[in-house]
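Contributing new records

If you add data, match the layout below exactly. Sequence lines come first and carry their own label; structure lines follow with theirs. Keep one chain per record. Anything else will be rejected by the validation script.
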Amino acid sequence: MNAPERSAAFLLDEDNGEVKITYAADTKVSNAGTFTFNKEDHTIANLLRMQLLRDPRVRFVGYMHPHPLIHRIDMRIQTSSSTVAPVEVLSAALEDLANETDHLTTQVSEAISNWKKDNEGGVMGM
């Protein structure tokens, strides 16, 4: 068949030196740059964009998904001060998202445990 492998949409080709994230500083604005996320789509891009927009140090963040068959996201970040680098705010956003995910996982596990404890007799008392 002429279709690409499904795994090519999410697995990095490390044999050819493909990396997950690359950064290119903007040549015209000192506090801006573009990150390229390989093998990602709108799901992670919008999540990161919204988290970055919560940070008061971020002036602008936007992303572009070039084509549905190209598994790449280009995200541009501009900070509000030249003393804060885009790499710093992205790192902070990723750390915040990791903490929120850990908290959510803990909450779900506790809720499942409580539900199981409350419903030991079976589903709906049967």
